[in-house]
Amino acid sequence: MSFGAKGKTTIFSLPRPDYEEIKRHLEELGADMVISDIDLETSSNDLEKKIIEKFGSLPILGLNCVGGSNALGLAKLLQNNGLLLTYGAMAKRPITLPASLLIFKNITFKGFWLSSLDKAADEPNARSQRIVSEISKWIKMGTFKLDFTTHPMDSWQHAIDTAIKSSFTKSKQILLLSPERD
């Protein structure tokens, strides 16, 4: 879940034992501010002040991929006339809206389903192919960094064990189907 304030990136992170390490990692990747889930739900006034201090204003756009109470906390931090765009529901919980956000802050809530755009397009996979192509360029240029570890196919068990040892790992595990080439 994130929102942008004047082109800045803010990321909300779920509570976990290695929160500080993950926070540092996200900041290294370019996040301007990382806010814990707990802070999002408990200290709205203090959090508003921190956000305004950091960015000069509250954001006008919130991007919600979690749902539930997280989305509500995010919506409360938007400027008047802001937009909360939901594109996922990882919490599998409904977003319960207080009337005050609709009446007094005039927050707009919208849903977005990328797959429906591809289905409606003349060339259904063209957009996805362009996105993958652009991201690939960023990776090659070093603009977009990925944290991953490769494993030969005969080490598949080690790769799987590494991937599942924690439900949250920074590094993705990739099995190589053929030997690496220079």
Topology of helices and strands:
Elements: E1 2-5, E2 8-13, H1 19-28, E3 33-36, H2 37-42, H3 44-55, E4 61-64, H4 68-76, E5 83-86, H5 99-103, E6 108-111, H6 114-120, H7 126-141, E7 148-152, H8 156-164, E8 172-176
Parallel strand pairs: 2-3, 4-5, 5-6, 7-8
Antiparallel strand pairs: 1-2, 1-4
As for the CATH topology of the largest domain, it is Rossmann fold
Note the quaternary state here.
single chain
Counting DSSP H or I runs of 4 or more residues, the number of helices is 8
How confident is the prediction overall: mean pLDDT?
Answer: 81
Q: Compute the separation of the termini in Å.
A: 38 Å
Residue runs with pLDDT of under 50 for 5 or more positions: none
Main beta-sheet annotation:
6 strands, mixed
Query: SSE order, as H and E?
Result: EEHEHHEHEHEHHEHE
Shape from CA axes?
A: globular
The CATH class of the largest domain: Alpha Beta
Q: Reading side by side through the largest sheet, how are the strands ordered?
A: 3-2-1-4-5-6
- In total, the number of strands is 8
Percentage of helical residues? 40-55%
| Gyration radius, rounded | 19 Å
Query: What is the SS-derived class?
Result: alpha/beta
State the CATH architecture of the largest domain: 3-Layer(aba) Sandwich
Number of structural units classed as domains: 2
CATH homology superfamily name of the largest domain: NAD(P)-binding Rossmann-like Domain
InterPro entries: ADH-like_C, Mito_Enoyl-ACP_Reductase, NAD(P)-bd_dom_sf
GO molecular function, one term: oxidoreductase activity
Organism: Mitosporidium daphniae
Keywords: NADP, Oxidoreductase
